[in-house]
């Protein structure tokens, strides 16, 4: 440790001597926090700052480990890992610039952070389109990059969690897919397991400990530095930027139902005034289907195609995600949505998930109870639940508990993968009329692999001494 510190100090002294011999911009450069980096030597001095050197160590060690594992796998996994490395390199350059730049406003901050945002969107683009065999790798890497948004923290009122908490919360969503990689390849390919472990350790403890040591309250801007450069305007023929960027000049807020209420009020107003039916024609007897000669019992091919076409949303109703009466979160008919998040919730509220398919919901905070009903290929990541987590009438669902849950109930469900953490191992699991229920628990050591336990679905009932005794069926190799 002391030898590394001496080497860093020697490197810093060497750089300063080189700056001094070259004129250094004609002035003395301050090394104090918030010093003047506006001279031509500012970049060199900022690059030798201990926080920048520590970030270089993070890249060389943790990012380098992930790249080494990805090179053994190749293909899309290597491509997305290179984007992760590019994102970390981009953030390092931004950290150097922050030491030379005044704190911008929200619009200026979005432009300042645009290089990092562009790299992140490249990773997001790899998860879209036709799903590849490495979708879980791509999704884990892509979602993990949201942790780098800690650099956008400007204060308690900016709408973000504190930097350390933001890194931890951002990894939780990525961990859902990272765990899938570990489970799928733990007995098949050690290279994929090593990649998943390297990706996790890049953020926890890697990035988290770096932020904790150097920027626990966010980046430190230079009050006497140069103003942040404004974002460049796009040329007239340039396409519009992609939606949902990592950074935005406005804080993300939960959707409100006020617009829906206004719309319904307008509908009822029109109904009461009679204006809605004013333009309708009267249906005469010859217009009725039973009296039309051109109508037969045969169904044309065009009608068949129209009737069998896939609807834009679930047959049961339009997509919905809202807080009802301040007590119940309703998440209904969501199809193909991988980024559903409930961030503002409390222990008095419940969450009801109905009719969703091929979607992922993250619940950030403690709620009273959670119910999944009639969902297919649905993933739910939650922190804590006060009463119970219920799974009813579902097919192929995955649930990850990151805190505690007294009870998990599975009823009339086919295919359920349940992930428990070390704080939820005492959870009582109740199953009824269900099959293919697997529970994943952490290994014996922090670095150990997840251990899978299959819950029994077959039982022996033996009449003994006036009563039936029931025992689960055990299979060899189970």
TrEMBL record:
Protein name: Adenylyl cyclase-associated protein
Annotated Low complexity bias: 248-258
Domain C-CAP/cofactor C-like, residue spans: 318-455
Domain of life: Eukaryota
Similarity section: Belongs to the CAP family.
Comp. bias intervals (Basic and acidic residues): 282-295
Species name: Arabidopsis suecica
GO molecular function terms listed in the Swiss-Prot or TrEMBL record: actin binding; adenylate cyclase binding
Chain intervals with Pro residues compositional bias: 233-245
SMART domains the UniProt entry points to: CARP
GO cellular component: cytoplasm
């Amino acid at each position: 440790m002391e030898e590394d510190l001496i080497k860093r100090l020697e490197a810093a002294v060497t750089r300063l001597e080189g700056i001094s011999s070259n004129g250094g911009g004609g002035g003395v450069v301050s090394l104090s926090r918030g010093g003047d980096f506006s001279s031509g030597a500012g970049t060199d001095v900022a690059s030798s700052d201990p926080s920048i050197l520590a970030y270089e160590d993070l890249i060389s060690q943790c990012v380098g480990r992930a790249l080494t594992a990805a090179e053994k796998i190749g293909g899309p996994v290597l491509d997305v890992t290179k984007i992760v490395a590019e994102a970390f390199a981009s953030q390092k350059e931004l950290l150097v610039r922050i030491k030379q730049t005044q704190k911008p406003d929200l619009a200026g901050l979005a432009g300042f952070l645009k290089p990092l945002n562009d790299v992140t969107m490249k990773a997001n683009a790899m998860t879209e389109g036709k799903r590849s065999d490495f979708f879980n790798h791509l999704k884990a890497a892509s979602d993990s990059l949201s942790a780098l948004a800690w650099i956008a923290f400007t204060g308690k009122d900016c709408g973000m969690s504190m930097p350390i908490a933001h890194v931890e919360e951002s990894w939780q969503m990525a961990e859902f897919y990272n765990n899938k990689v570990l489970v799928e390849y733990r007995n098949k390919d050690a290279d994929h397991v090593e990649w998943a472990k390297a990706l996790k350790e890049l953020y926890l403890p890697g990035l988290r400990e770096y932020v904790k040591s150097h920027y626990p309250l966010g980046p430190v801007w230079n009050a006497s530095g140069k103003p942040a450069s404004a974002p460049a305007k796009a040329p007239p023929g340039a396409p519009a930027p992609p939606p949902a960027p990592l950074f935005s000049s406005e804080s993300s807020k939960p959707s409100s139902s006020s617009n829906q209420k206004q719309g319904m009020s307008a509908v009822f107003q029109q109904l009461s005034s009679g204006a809605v039916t004013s333009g309708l024609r009267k249906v005469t007897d010859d217009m009725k289907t039973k009296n039309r000669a051109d109508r037969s019992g045969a169904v044309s091919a065009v009608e068949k195609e129209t009737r069998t076409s896939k609807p834009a949303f679930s047959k049961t109703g339009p997509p919905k995600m809202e807080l009802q009466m301040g007590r119940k979160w309703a998440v209904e008919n969501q199809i193909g949505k991988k980024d559903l998040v409930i961030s503002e919730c409390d222990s008095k509220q419940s969450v009801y998930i109905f009719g969703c398919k091929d979607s992922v919901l993250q619940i950030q905070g403690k709620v009273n109870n959670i119910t999944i009903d009639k969902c297919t290929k649905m993933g739910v990541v939650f922190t804590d639940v006060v009463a119970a987590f219920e799974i009813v009438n579902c097919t192929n669902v995955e649930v990850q508990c990151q805190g505690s849950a007294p009870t998990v109930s599975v009823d009339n469900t086919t295919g359920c993968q349940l992930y428990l953490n070390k704080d939820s191992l005492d959870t009582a699991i109740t199953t009824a009329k269900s099959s293919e229920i697997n529970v994943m628990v952490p290994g014996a050591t922090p670095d150990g692999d997840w251990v899978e336990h299959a819950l029994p679905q077959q039982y022996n009932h033996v009449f003994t001494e006036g009563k039936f005794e029931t025992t689960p069926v055990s299979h060899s190799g189970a």
